[in-house]
Structures are given as structure tokens and as C-alpha cells.
Design a protein that fits this description.
There is one protein chain. Helices cover about 75% and strands about 5% of the residues. By secondary structure, the chain is mainly α. It folds into 2 domains: about 200 residues, Up-down Bundle (Growth Hormone, Chain: A), CATH 1.20.1250; about 220 residues, Growth Hormone, Chain: A, CATH 1.20.1250. A two-stranded antiparallel ribbon has the order 1-2. β5 and β6 form a beta hairpin. α2 crosses α13. The two termini are about 45 Å apart. About 50% of the residues are buried.
Length: about 475
């Protein structure tokens, strides 16, 4: 397919950059797959290991600490060795983690391999969107950047679908499937295939022009820009060099401020990221199978419910992509907060008022058929409101709300806060669930209400504003 011509400047066919952006977004797919795969396995892992709720929660959440570390260091490592090299290393980490988790011999070895995988997730969460932005023409950068979020939610869906299929084939996640290994082990090892695909694709796509310019390889950068981006490569390289010269004078001290050591806008970014997790969204994707089993669903129906929720998440992410530039960031966040508060409050009421029974020392609610249907609907509507607002919009805002002087460091700090909050929620949910699901969802509903007031008071609309205009 030939490129078009605008004046005397050739415009390469957009399919070229779509292909390499999609290849890089495979890191987002693995991000989603890896973080969600624990969903179908956690119940069987608990029975296999005999771990209590605290240890089981730590095993699930430990990877998230490594995610924060991986996200923090991925940028500096990519600046030294290249974006492609980080992708290749991340692919190896994903493969080792998946294989090791599937062959784990006790709970601590499983925790260790999940922790290793967290480094890959953290690196992929930073490198894929950065690479896509650096190789994309300005006219399609927003849409191509959305591939990362779309890849994440598709990865979640494929992971949950794979879990469901493997459990169905074995007759249960804890039952033996192939070669004497239980189905839950194959759930983890299924990730080996996309990890290999990611590694192969990372060898095939070109390096970021920005990295090449930073290493003095400008002729190579010019060829890549001409082939994928178009425009005037020499002018683009000049602009990249100017930006690199500016960044060379910066350090993390630029985000310091008078309020508890950080600039106010940095604190806003940190709280925004923390609230994205404190509303409890990853409880749905990490623990939903165990949750629905606890209220009377059999394992097959619980896994299938998780698959349906993942499909809903994909659909609402597409809705957010279509609406974010039409409605604006702040209105979408406020709509999402109201919807999450109502749906989480409904779940808290249903679980908190249901009759209970004690199973294995844990208090479990008994839902009637009607209450069960309402709970499932509320859970999926909760995902709808999150997926169309706080899921993708927070990441959009992080890329826009900071000025050029502090953006790189502020995003790193805010993203690390997001992973830490994710860790706290994932670690505490099993204990909260034992104390009562009504309590757990009541806390998340409270966070949703707080998120509404936080957005109303502190978030400024960034739609239509140039990045250079941010204060």
C-alpha cells in the first residue's frame, strides 16, 4: 500500500505504524493477562497450599510491589539500553514467571515467581505507551496510544477465558489436567505462549527514534521516521535533540514543593492514582472467582461470570476512548465516581444484610436467587462505570496534567503510588472478606464517594489545552 503525499511531504501509510504500535502493545496484553490470571487459580492455590487469608493475600499482592519497582526503573534502563531491549527482557521475565508459577512446589516459591513477573508487568506498563508515543505520527497518536489500555483489558479477558476453559476441561481448577499437573498450574503456564510472541515481535520492530538520537544514531532515526512517521525527519530530529538537551538538566528535585516535600500538583496526581485503586476495582479481577463461590456460585459459574465482566470491561474501554475528547476528563471521572458509589453501595447492602453461615472459620453470606442476580448486575455495572472513566481517564490525565518541566518524574511517582495502592487493596481483601463482604464493599463505596469530591475540588479539565500551557 503506497503512502499519500501532502504537498511535497510524503505521508507513509498508517498501517505501518499501526503494526509496530500493536506489537509494542503486546506488553499491555501481558500486563493484563499476568495480573488477572491469579483470579481463577487463587481458590485452588489456597486449598493446595493451606495458606491462611493473610499469606494468600500477600502471595497475590506481592507481584504488585515488583510492579512499582519495575515501573520506576524501566525508564532509566530504557534510556540507557533502548526501549526494544527492555521489551525483550520483559518478555523473558514473563516467560520465567509463568513457567515457575505453574511448577511451584509450595506457596513461597509461587510468591517468588509472581514477584519476578511483577518486574515485567511494571516495565511493560511504562515502556509500551512511551514507545508508541515516540513512533506515532501526531495525527494518530491519541488513538494509537489507546491501544495500550485496550490491550490490557483484552489481556484480562483472554486470561479469564483461558482460566474458564482449563477449569472446565479438568473438572475444576484444583483437578489434574495434563501430565499430572492441576488445571491452576496450566492457567499460569498458558502465559508462556504470549510471552514468546512478545519476545519475537520485540526483535522485529524498530528502535525508538528518540533513543537513537540520544545515542547519536541520527541516520538510523531519520530512516525510521521517514518510513513510519513521515513529515520532515530532520526537523523532528532537531526537536528531539532540543528536548533531550532540556531533560539532561533535570533531576527528581524538580517535583519538590512546600507541602510535605512535593509540589501540590504532584500530590494531586498521587491521590488520583491511589483512589483509582482504593475503589477496589482489582478485587473484581483478582478475586471475583473466589468471591462468587463464597456467595453460592459453583466454580464454573464463578469463572464464567469473570469472563463476562472482562467483556464488559473491553466494551466500556472503547466507550471511554470515544468519549474522552468529546465530554472531557473531569465530567467522565465524576460520572464514574457517582456510578461506582451507587453500585458498590448496592453490593455492600446486599452482602451486609444477607443471612450468613460459617464455613472453615469464615463468615459467608447466603444470597437468594434475586439477591444473586442483583449482585452480579451491580458488579458488572460497577465495571462499566469504572471502565468508562477512572480506568483509562486517569492515565490520560497523568500524561496531560503536569507541565513539561516535571512531567517525567511526576508520572513516575504517581504511577508508583498506583501500584502501592493496588498492593494494599489486594493484600487486605481476603481478610476483609473473612470479616464480611458488606464491610469490604462498604469501604470501597466510601472511597468512591471521596473520589467524587476530590475530582470536583482538585482536578482541572485538560481537554483542548496544549501541554505547554500546563502550570
Amino acid at each position: 500500500m503506497a503512502g499519500t503525499v501532502t504537498g511535497t511531504v510524503p505521508v507513509p501509510p498508517v498501517t505501518r505504524v499501526i503494526m509496530i504500535a500493536a506489537a509494542a502493545a503486546m506488553g499491555g496484553f501481558l500486563f493484563g493477562f499476568d495480573t488477572a490470571v491469579i483470579n481463577g487459580a487463587v481458590g485452588a492455590v489456597g486449598e493446595w497450599s493451606g495458606a491462611g487469608s493473610v499469606l494468600l493475600g500477600f502471595s497475590v499482592a506481592s507481584a504488585l510491589i515488583a510492579c512499582a519497582i519495575g515501573a520506576w526503573f524501566a525508564g532509566p534502563i530504557a534510556a540507557r539500553f533502548g526501549r526494544i531491549r527492555v521489551m525483550q527482557v520483559a518478555a523473558v521475565i514473563f516467560f520465567v514467571s509463568a513457567l515457575g508459577s505453574g511448577l511451584a512446589w509450595e506457596i513461597w516459591s509461587l510468591t517468588a515467581f509472581r514477584f519476578i513477573g511483577g518486574f515485567g508487568v511494571g516495565a511493560a506498563s511504562v515502556i509500551a505507551p512511551a514507545y508508541i508515543a515516540e513512533v506515532s505520527p501526531a495525527r494518530v497518536r491519541g488513538r494509537l496510544g489507546s491501544l495500550q489500555q485496550l490491550a490490557i483489558v483484552i489481556g484480562i479477558f483472554v486470561s479469564l477465558l483461558s482460566n474458564y476453559a482449563l477449569a472446565q476441561a479438568a473438572g475444576g481448577a484444583g483437578e489434574v489436567l495434563w501430565f499430572g499437573l492441576e488445571a491452576w498450574r496450566w492457567m499460569f503456564m498458558a502465559e508462556c505462549l504470549p510471552a514468546v510472541v512478545y519476545g519475537v515481535l520485540a526483535y522485529l520492530i524498530p528502535e525508538s527514534p528518540r533513543f537513537l538520537v540520544s545515542k547519536g544514531r541520527e541516520e538510523e532515526a531519520e530512516r525510521i521516521l521517514a518510513h513510519y512517521v513521515g513529515g520532515t525527519p530532520t526537523e523532528t530530529i532537531r526537536a528531539i535533540r532540543s528536548t533531550l538537551d532540556f531533560e539532561a538538566t533535570q533531576s527528581i528535585s524538580v517535583i519538590r514543593g512546600p507541602r510535605f516535600g512535593l509540589a501540590p500538583i504532584v500530590w494531586i496526581g498521587i491521590v488520583l492514582c491511589a483512589l483509582q485503586q482504593l475503589v477496589g476495582i482489582n478485587v473484581i479481577f483478582y478475586y471475583s472467582t473466589m468471591l462468587w463461590q463464597a456467595v453460592g456460585f459453583d466454580e464454573s459459574d464463578a469463572l464464567l461470570t469473570g469472563v463476562i465482566t472482562a467483556v464488559v470491561n473491553i466494551a466500556t474501554t472503547v466507550i471511554a476512548i470515544l468519549l474522552v475528547d468529546r465530554i472531557g476528563r473531569k465530567p467522565l471521572l465524576m460520572i464514574g465516581s457517582i456510578g461506582m458509589a451507587l453500585t458498590l453501595g448496592t453490593m455492600a447492602f446486599i452482602f451486609g444484610t444477607a443471612p450468613t453461615e460459617t464455613v472453615g472459620g469464615a463468615v459467608q453470606p447466603i444470597l437468594s436467587d434475586t439477591a444473586g442476580v442483583v449482585a452480579v448486575l451491580a458488579a458488572n455495572l460497577y465495571v462499566v462505570f469504572f471502565g468508562m472513566s477512572w480506568g483509562p481517564v486517569v492515565w490520560v490525565l497523568l500524561g496531560e496534567m503536569f507541565n513539561n518541566r516535571i512531567r517525567a518524574y511526576a508520572i513516575s511517582v504517581a504511577a508508583a503510588a498506583q501500584w502501592v495502592a493496588n498492593f494494599v487493596v489486594s493484600l487486605t481483601f481476603p481478610s476483609l472478606a473473612q470479616a464480611g463482604l458488606g464491610l469490604a464493599y462498604g469501604l470501597y463505596a466510601t472511597m468512591a464517594v471521596l473520589s467524587l469530591f476530590f475530582v470536583w475540588k482538585f482536578i482541572r479539565e485538560t481537554r483542548g489545552r496544549e501541554l505547554e500551557a500546563m502550570e
